[in-house]
Design goal:
By secondary structure, this protein is α/β, with parallel strands linked by helices. The chain has helices at about 5-15, 20-30, 35-45, 55-70, 85, 120-135, 150-155, 180-185, 205-215, 230-240, 255-265, 275-280, 305-315, 320-330, 335-345, and strands spanning about 75, 95-100, 110-115, 140, 160-165, 190, 220, 245, 270, 320, 350, 355-360.
Protein backbone atom coordinates (compact mmCIF):
# COMPACT_ATOMS: atom_id res chain seq x y z
CA UNK A 1 0.00 0.00 0.00
CA UNK A 2 1.22 3.51 -0.76
CA UNK A 3 1.10 6.24 1.89
CA UNK A 4 -2.18 7.85 0.70
CA UNK A 5 -3.98 4.49 0.86
CA UNK A 6 -2.53 3.72 4.29
CA UNK A 7 -3.76 7.07 5.53
CA UNK A 8 -7.18 6.46 3.97
CA UNK A 9 -7.40 3.07 5.68
CA UNK A 10 -6.50 4.62 9.01
CA UNK A 11 -9.17 7.28 8.50
CA UNK A 12 -11.77 4.68 7.57
CA UNK A 13 -10.90 2.53 10.60
CA UNK A 14 -11.18 5.54 12.94
CA UNK A 15 -14.53 6.71 11.54
CA UNK A 16 -17.81 6.18 13.38
CA UNK A 17 -19.80 2.97 12.83
CA UNK A 18 -16.89 1.31 10.99
CA UNK A 19 -16.06 -1.86 12.89
CA UNK A 20 -13.71 -4.63 11.76
CA UNK A 21 -16.38 -6.56 9.82
CA UNK A 22 -17.65 -3.42 8.10
CA UNK A 23 -14.10 -2.34 7.27
CA UNK A 24 -13.30 -5.70 5.67
CA UNK A 25 -16.51 -5.69 3.64
CA UNK A 26 -15.92 -2.16 2.39
CA UNK A 27 -12.38 -2.94 1.28
CA UNK A 28 -13.53 -6.18 -0.30
CA UNK A 29 -16.29 -4.39 -2.17
CA UNK A 30 -14.48 -1.24 -3.32
CA UNK A 31 -10.86 -2.38 -3.40
CA UNK A 32 -9.40 0.67 -1.67
CA UNK A 33 -10.23 2.72 1.39
CA UNK A 34 -10.31 5.87 -0.72
CA UNK A 35 -13.05 4.44 -2.94
CA UNK A 36 -14.93 3.13 0.10
CA UNK A 37 -14.90 6.56 1.76
CA UNK A 38 -16.36 8.14 -1.37
CA UNK A 39 -19.12 5.53 -1.46
CA UNK A 40 -20.19 5.85 2.19
CA UNK A 41 -22.95 8.46 1.61
CA UNK A 42 -24.51 6.36 -1.16
CA UNK A 43 -24.38 3.14 0.86
CA UNK A 44 -25.82 4.78 3.98
CA UNK A 45 -28.62 6.42 1.98
CA UNK A 46 -29.63 3.01 0.64
CA UNK A 47 -29.78 1.80 4.23
CA UNK A 48 -32.10 4.64 5.17
CA UNK A 49 -29.73 6.84 7.17
CA UNK A 50 -26.86 9.29 7.13
CA UNK A 51 -23.26 8.37 6.37
CA UNK A 52 -20.83 7.67 9.23
CA UNK A 53 -18.83 10.62 10.47
CA UNK A 54 -15.33 10.45 9.04
CA UNK A 55 -12.34 10.86 11.32
CA UNK A 56 -10.94 14.38 11.44
CA UNK A 57 -7.64 14.61 9.50
CA UNK A 58 -6.19 16.61 12.39
CA UNK A 59 -6.86 13.66 14.71
CA UNK A 60 -5.06 11.38 12.30
CA UNK A 61 -2.06 13.73 12.23
CA UNK A 62 -2.01 13.76 16.02
CA UNK A 63 -2.22 9.96 16.17
CA UNK A 64 0.64 9.54 13.72
CA UNK A 65 2.77 11.95 15.72
CA UNK A 66 2.04 10.29 19.06
CA UNK A 67 2.62 6.79 17.71
CA UNK A 68 6.03 7.84 16.40
CA UNK A 69 6.85 9.58 19.70
CA UNK A 70 6.10 6.33 21.54
CA UNK A 71 8.56 4.44 19.35
CA UNK A 72 5.71 2.47 17.80
CA UNK A 73 4.18 2.03 14.34
CA UNK A 74 0.92 1.13 12.65
CA UNK A 75 0.39 -2.32 11.15
CA UNK A 76 -2.64 -2.74 8.91
CA UNK A 77 -4.46 -5.86 7.90
CA UNK A 78 -3.08 -6.90 4.55
CA UNK A 79 0.49 -5.93 5.51
CA UNK A 80 2.99 -8.77 5.19
CA UNK A 81 3.86 -8.60 8.90
CA UNK A 82 0.30 -8.41 10.23
CA UNK A 83 -0.07 -11.31 12.73
CA UNK A 84 -0.97 -14.40 10.68
CA UNK A 85 -3.35 -16.09 13.10
CA UNK A 86 -5.18 -12.86 13.82
CA UNK A 87 -5.56 -12.06 10.13
CA UNK A 88 -7.55 -15.22 9.41
CA UNK A 89 -10.45 -14.19 11.70
CA UNK A 90 -13.54 -12.47 10.35
CA UNK A 91 -13.32 -9.57 12.82
CA UNK A 92 -9.57 -8.96 12.84
CA UNK A 93 -8.72 -5.37 13.87
CA UNK A 94 -8.09 -3.30 10.71
CA UNK A 95 -5.25 -1.39 12.40
CA UNK A 96 -2.87 -2.33 15.18
CA UNK A 97 -0.28 -0.14 16.89
CA UNK A 98 2.80 -2.14 17.81
CA UNK A 99 6.05 -1.50 19.62
CA UNK A 100 8.73 -4.18 19.53
CA UNK A 101 9.45 -7.33 17.55
CA UNK A 102 6.49 -8.53 15.46
CA UNK A 103 8.45 -11.57 14.29
CA UNK A 104 7.76 -13.12 17.71
CA UNK A 105 4.32 -13.98 16.36
CA UNK A 106 5.86 -15.99 13.53
CA UNK A 107 6.63 -18.62 16.17
CA UNK A 108 4.02 -20.90 17.77
CA UNK A 109 2.18 -18.64 20.23
CA UNK A 110 0.39 -19.56 23.44
CA UNK A 111 -1.98 -17.22 25.28
CA UNK A 112 -1.83 -17.41 29.07
CA UNK A 113 -4.55 -15.73 31.11
CA UNK A 114 -5.97 -15.95 34.61
CA UNK A 115 -7.13 -14.18 37.72
CA UNK A 116 -5.87 -10.74 38.67
CA UNK A 117 -6.10 -11.71 42.35
CA UNK A 118 -4.37 -15.02 41.72
CA UNK A 119 -2.90 -17.11 44.50
CA UNK A 120 0.84 -17.14 45.08
CA UNK A 121 0.98 -20.79 44.01
CA UNK A 122 -0.83 -20.07 40.74
CA UNK A 123 1.48 -17.14 39.93
CA UNK A 124 4.52 -19.31 40.59
CA UNK A 125 3.11 -22.06 38.34
CA UNK A 126 2.26 -19.55 35.58
CA UNK A 127 5.74 -18.04 35.68
CA UNK A 128 7.39 -21.47 35.50
CA UNK A 129 5.03 -22.70 32.78
CA UNK A 130 5.69 -19.61 30.65
CA UNK A 131 9.44 -20.06 31.11
CA UNK A 132 9.33 -23.71 30.05
CA UNK A 133 7.08 -22.98 27.06
CA UNK A 134 9.52 -20.28 25.98
CA UNK A 135 12.38 -22.74 26.28
CA UNK A 136 10.39 -25.10 24.05
CA UNK A 137 10.17 -22.41 21.33
CA UNK A 138 6.78 -20.82 22.02
CA UNK A 139 5.94 -17.14 22.33
CA UNK A 140 3.73 -16.23 25.29
CA UNK A 141 0.85 -13.77 24.79
CA UNK A 142 -0.99 -12.17 27.69
CA UNK A 143 -2.72 -8.96 28.71
CA UNK A 144 -0.25 -7.20 31.06
CA UNK A 145 -2.80 -7.32 33.87
CA UNK A 146 -2.10 -8.05 37.50
CA UNK A 147 -1.73 -11.62 38.69
CA UNK A 148 -1.38 -14.43 36.14
CA UNK A 149 -0.69 -12.10 33.18
CA UNK A 150 2.20 -10.43 34.98
CA UNK A 151 3.64 -13.78 36.06
CA UNK A 152 3.42 -15.16 32.51
CA UNK A 153 5.23 -12.14 31.07
CA UNK A 154 8.00 -12.30 33.68
CA UNK A 155 8.47 -16.00 33.03
CA UNK A 156 8.89 -15.52 29.28
CA UNK A 157 10.77 -12.21 29.05
CA UNK A 158 14.00 -13.94 28.11
CA UNK A 159 12.44 -16.12 25.41
CA UNK A 160 9.75 -13.90 23.87
CA UNK A 161 6.53 -12.43 25.21
CA UNK A 162 3.73 -10.27 23.79
CA UNK A 163 1.54 -7.92 25.82
CA UNK A 164 -1.84 -6.88 24.40
CA UNK A 165 -3.25 -3.81 26.14
CA UNK A 166 -6.70 -2.21 26.31
CA UNK A 167 -5.35 1.35 26.32
CA UNK A 168 -3.30 3.45 23.94
CA UNK A 169 0.28 2.37 23.33
CA UNK A 170 1.50 5.31 25.45
CA UNK A 171 -0.51 4.43 28.57
CA UNK A 172 0.51 1.75 31.08
CA UNK A 173 -2.20 -0.08 33.01
CA UNK A 174 -2.08 -1.08 35.77
CA UNK A 175 0.39 1.67 36.71
CA UNK A 176 2.64 -0.74 38.61
CA UNK A 177 3.32 -2.57 35.33
CA UNK A 178 4.70 0.52 33.59
CA UNK A 179 8.27 -0.79 33.81
CA UNK A 180 7.20 -4.24 32.61
CA UNK A 181 5.33 -2.74 29.65
CA UNK A 182 8.39 -0.68 28.75
CA UNK A 183 10.56 -3.80 28.85
CA UNK A 184 8.16 -5.65 26.58
CA UNK A 185 8.36 -2.80 24.09
CA UNK A 186 12.15 -3.13 24.05
CA UNK A 187 12.66 -6.88 24.48
CA UNK A 188 9.34 -8.34 23.33
CA UNK A 189 6.22 -6.83 21.76
CA UNK A 190 3.34 -4.60 22.89
CA UNK A 191 0.13 -4.43 20.83
CA UNK A 192 -2.63 -1.83 21.15
CA UNK A 193 -5.79 -1.48 19.10
CA UNK A 194 -6.86 1.86 20.55
CA UNK A 195 -5.27 5.18 19.46
CA UNK A 196 -2.62 6.79 21.68
CA UNK A 197 -3.99 8.59 24.70
CA UNK A 198 -6.94 6.19 25.08
CA UNK A 199 -7.62 5.28 28.70
CA UNK A 200 -8.33 1.58 29.46
CA UNK A 201 -12.12 1.74 29.73
CA UNK A 202 -14.09 -1.39 30.65
CA UNK A 203 -15.54 -1.83 27.16
CA UNK A 204 -12.07 -2.13 25.64
CA UNK A 205 -11.04 -5.20 27.64
CA UNK A 206 -13.23 -7.75 25.78
CA UNK A 207 -11.80 -6.35 22.54
CA UNK A 208 -8.30 -6.75 23.96
CA UNK A 209 -9.18 -10.32 24.94
CA UNK A 210 -10.16 -11.28 21.40
CA UNK A 211 -6.72 -10.24 20.12
CA UNK A 212 -5.05 -12.35 22.81
CA UNK A 213 -7.19 -15.39 21.93
CA UNK A 214 -7.04 -15.05 18.15
CA UNK A 215 -3.31 -14.32 17.86
CA UNK A 216 -2.42 -17.61 19.59
CA UNK A 217 -2.67 -21.28 18.65
CA UNK A 218 -4.14 -22.03 22.05
CA UNK A 219 -5.15 -20.41 25.33
CA UNK A 220 -4.13 -21.66 28.77
CA UNK A 221 -6.25 -20.53 31.73
CA UNK A 222 -4.34 -20.89 34.99
CA UNK A 223 -6.81 -19.58 37.56
CA UNK A 224 -10.19 -17.96 36.92
CA UNK A 225 -13.42 -17.33 38.73
CA UNK A 226 -16.76 -17.99 37.00
CA UNK A 227 -17.83 -15.22 34.57
CA UNK A 228 -14.34 -13.70 34.57
CA UNK A 229 -12.57 -12.02 31.67
CA UNK A 230 -10.29 -15.04 31.39
CA UNK A 231 -13.27 -17.22 30.53
CA UNK A 232 -14.30 -14.71 27.86
CA UNK A 233 -10.85 -15.14 26.32
CA UNK A 234 -11.24 -18.93 26.47
CA UNK A 235 -14.66 -18.73 24.80
CA UNK A 236 -13.29 -16.52 22.04
CA UNK A 237 -10.44 -18.96 21.49
CA UNK A 238 -12.87 -21.87 21.20
CA UNK A 239 -15.12 -19.98 18.76
CA UNK A 240 -12.08 -19.32 16.56
CA UNK A 241 -11.15 -23.00 16.54
CA UNK A 242 -8.16 -22.60 18.83
CA UNK A 243 -7.11 -25.02 21.55
CA UNK A 244 -8.47 -24.25 25.04
CA UNK A 245 -6.49 -25.61 27.99
CA UNK A 246 -6.94 -25.18 31.73
CA UNK A 247 -4.99 -25.90 34.89
CA UNK A 248 -7.13 -27.77 37.43
CA UNK A 249 -7.46 -26.41 40.95
CA UNK A 250 -8.95 -27.18 44.31
CA UNK A 251 -12.77 -27.20 44.35
CA UNK A 252 -12.50 -25.32 47.64
CA UNK A 253 -10.86 -22.30 45.96
CA UNK A 254 -13.34 -20.00 44.13
CA UNK A 255 -10.49 -18.88 41.89
CA UNK A 256 -10.26 -22.41 40.48
CA UNK A 257 -13.95 -22.82 39.68
CA UNK A 258 -13.65 -21.30 36.22
CA UNK A 259 -10.79 -23.61 35.20
CA UNK A 260 -12.53 -26.69 36.59
CA UNK A 261 -15.69 -25.74 34.70
CA UNK A 262 -13.72 -25.37 31.45
CA UNK A 263 -12.27 -28.85 31.90
CA UNK A 264 -15.72 -30.28 32.61
CA UNK A 265 -16.95 -28.65 29.37
CA UNK A 266 -14.16 -30.13 27.25
CA UNK A 267 -11.04 -28.01 27.71
CA UNK A 268 -7.78 -29.97 27.85
CA UNK A 269 -6.42 -30.48 31.35
CA UNK A 270 -2.77 -29.45 31.45
CA UNK A 271 -0.18 -29.80 34.17
CA UNK A 272 3.08 -29.08 32.35
CA UNK A 273 4.63 -27.36 29.35
CA UNK A 274 4.84 -30.75 27.64
CA UNK A 275 1.05 -31.06 27.90
CA UNK A 276 0.63 -27.67 26.18
CA UNK A 277 3.13 -28.32 23.41
CA UNK A 278 1.49 -31.66 22.68
CA UNK A 279 -1.75 -29.83 21.89
CA UNK A 280 -0.28 -27.26 19.53
CA UNK A 281 2.72 -29.01 17.96
CA UNK A 282 0.76 -30.59 15.07
CA UNK A 283 -0.41 -27.14 13.90
CA UNK A 284 1.63 -25.36 11.23
CA UNK A 285 1.28 -21.61 11.75
CA UNK A 286 2.02 -20.95 8.06
CA UNK A 287 -1.03 -22.94 7.01
CA UNK A 288 -3.48 -20.56 8.66
CA UNK A 289 -2.48 -17.24 7.09
CA UNK A 290 -5.52 -15.68 5.47
CA UNK A 291 -5.38 -15.41 1.67
CA UNK A 292 -4.47 -11.89 0.57
CA UNK A 293 -6.98 -12.21 -2.27
CA UNK A 294 -9.87 -11.28 0.01
CA UNK A 295 -8.55 -7.71 0.00
CA UNK A 296 -8.83 -7.52 -3.77
CA UNK A 297 -12.20 -9.22 -4.11
CA UNK A 298 -14.54 -8.10 -6.91
CA UNK A 299 -17.51 -5.96 -5.93
CA UNK A 300 -20.44 -7.92 -4.53
CA UNK A 301 -23.89 -7.80 -6.02
CA UNK A 302 -26.01 -4.70 -5.44
CA UNK A 303 -29.28 -5.18 -3.62
CA UNK A 304 -32.61 -4.00 -4.96
CA UNK A 305 -35.51 -2.50 -3.03
CA UNK A 306 -37.24 -5.89 -2.79
CA UNK A 307 -34.07 -7.43 -1.38
CA UNK A 308 -33.76 -4.70 1.25
CA UNK A 309 -37.37 -5.08 2.27
CA UNK A 310 -37.11 -8.87 2.53
CA UNK A 311 -33.96 -8.84 4.68
CA UNK A 312 -34.98 -5.88 6.86
CA UNK A 313 -38.36 -7.46 7.61
CA UNK A 314 -36.57 -10.43 9.18
CA UNK A 315 -34.57 -8.24 11.55
CA UNK A 316 -35.61 -7.09 14.99
CA UNK A 317 -34.16 -6.29 18.41
CA UNK A 318 -33.25 -9.94 19.03
CA UNK A 319 -29.88 -10.91 17.48
CA UNK A 320 -30.07 -13.49 14.68
CA UNK A 321 -27.32 -15.18 12.69
CA UNK A 322 -26.54 -14.03 9.18
CA UNK A 323 -26.92 -17.63 7.99
CA UNK A 324 -30.51 -17.63 9.26
CA UNK A 325 -31.23 -14.41 7.38
CA UNK A 326 -29.86 -15.96 4.20
CA UNK A 327 -32.00 -19.06 4.64
CA UNK A 328 -35.25 -17.26 5.46
CA UNK A 329 -34.89 -14.47 2.90
CA UNK A 330 -34.01 -16.89 0.08
CA UNK A 331 -31.36 -14.38 -1.05
CA UNK A 332 -27.80 -15.22 -1.97
CA UNK A 333 -25.20 -14.40 0.71
CA UNK A 334 -23.76 -11.47 -1.26
CA UNK A 335 -27.14 -9.73 -1.38
CA UNK A 336 -27.81 -10.25 2.33
CA UNK A 337 -24.36 -9.00 3.28
CA UNK A 338 -24.84 -5.92 1.10
CA UNK A 339 -28.15 -5.06 2.79
CA UNK A 340 -26.61 -5.54 6.24
CA UNK A 341 -23.67 -3.36 5.29
CA UNK A 342 -26.00 -0.59 4.11
CA UNK A 343 -28.04 -0.79 7.31
CA UNK A 344 -24.94 -0.68 9.49
CA UNK A 345 -23.49 2.33 7.69
CA UNK A 346 -26.86 4.02 8.17
CA UNK A 347 -26.69 3.38 11.91
CA UNK A 348 -29.61 0.95 11.88
CA UNK A 349 -27.79 -2.32 12.54
CA UNK A 350 -25.76 -3.73 15.43
CA UNK A 351 -23.35 -6.65 15.19
CA UNK A 352 -22.99 -9.13 18.04
CA UNK A 353 -20.69 -11.99 18.95
CA UNK A 354 -21.05 -15.19 16.99
CA UNK A 355 -21.85 -13.47 13.70
CA UNK A 356 -25.29 -12.32 14.85
CA UNK A 357 -27.00 -9.04 13.96
CA UNK A 358 -30.00 -7.03 15.15
CA UNK A 359 -31.71 -3.76 14.43
CA UNK A 360 -30.36 -0.86 16.48
CA UNK A 361 -32.48 0.53 19.28
CA UNK A 362 -33.43 4.06 18.23
Amino acid sequence: MDDPERRARLRLARSSRIGPVTFAQLIGRFGTASAAIEALPMMAARGGGRAPELADPRRLNDELRRVAAAGARHVMIGDADYPALLEQTDAAPPVLIVRGDLSLLDRPSIAMVGARNASAAACRFARQLAHELGQAGATIISGLARGIDTAAHHGSLATGTVGVIASGIDIAFPPENAELQARLGEEGLVIAEQPPGTEPLARFFPRRNRIIAWAALGTVVVEAAPRSGSLITARLAAEAGREVMAVPGSPLDPRAQGCNALIREGATLIQSAADVMEQIRPIDIRSVRAPVSRWGAPPVEDAGDADRAAVTALLGPVPVTVDELIRQSSRVPAIVQTVLLELELAGRLERHAGGRVSLSAL
